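Readers of this paper often ask what the protein records in our data store actually look like. An entry from our holdings is shown next, in its original layout:
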Amino acid sequence: MQIFDVYPLYDIEPVRAREVYLWDKNGVQYLDFYGGHAVISIGHSHPHYVRRLTTQLDHLGFYSNSVQIPLQKELAARLGELSGYNDYQLFFSNSGAEANENALKLASFHNRRKLVIAFAGAFHGRTSATVAVTDNPKIRAPLNENHEVIFLPLNDETALQHAFQRDNICAAIVEGIQGIAGIHLPAPRFLRKLQKLCEQSGALLILDEVQSGYGRSGKFFAHQFADIRPDLITIAKGMGNGFPVAGLLINPKFQASHGLLGTTFGGNHLACAAAVAVLEVIAQEKLIDNSAKMGDYLLSELRWITKGLKEVRGRGLMIGVELDFATETIRKKMLFEHRIFTGSSHNPNTIRLLPPLTLKQEHADRFLESFAAVMRDL
């Protein structure tokens, strides 16, 4: 049997990782400025994380949600305290797409409506409803085209006001920071306007914090820069530092009932152990503060580069560097000549930087020196 060939692959085989570094099978060291799609939040193979998972696996790796799992309650309590959402409820799942799918379904259960507002450049997942609210028709099969979705320009208050003249809107879904689109930030005023219109119309506001959450922006959630409290918040990527785990934070106005939502693997013992370890390390090592500090440093230093640079965007350690030309050659030079991983985006001219939140200035300086050298050699 062959692997279904849907991923373009670099000829690199990592076999070991620690903190912000990876090593391939030939012993070559790489600096990780991409974190495996923003997944690595507390650094690779953090000792506390490894101990938590190893200890849990030694006792019990998995049983279903038909029994008591105290780790779920511990995780919910720690998450509520660190995020500022103590009064919300938590539903576990396995991926960001699944979290968003459940958010859309729960919104529709709540107000019995179907129409969803999404935004140009959005990416919310590849499951049925999430791919329908993703602004990429290339990944949308005919099966996904029956969902009722309106796409609006991000940060366009006039278009937003006009769309909410309808009385049948189920929900609006927006990323805390658009990641795959190339790091685009919803304006705080725009988010506040969106929340107000949702409240007035009976629609639900869903904040997709799958990539921008868990301290990456310099706050626990990126939407907290706008001082809003969404109805539903989705989390994944950085939540498990590589272990598949995701969740949905649910406003207390939603009423649960047995069978309303469900999952086989969501909230299992190992997933919760991984997620608890992540929160413990984030708190103990003050990684949200570090994300803000190192992000400010990178954003400031990157803007000194003038040759070929069009714009630098982002918050914290979620940064987009847009060039005047396609980035593929630059990214390959960074990877194969300077041994630094960076990320692409749907905008071929934009590089995404999503390093672990444990990044230090010495790592940032190595990246900046390498990137400046590559840009000078154009």
In short: The chain is about 35% helix and 20% strand.
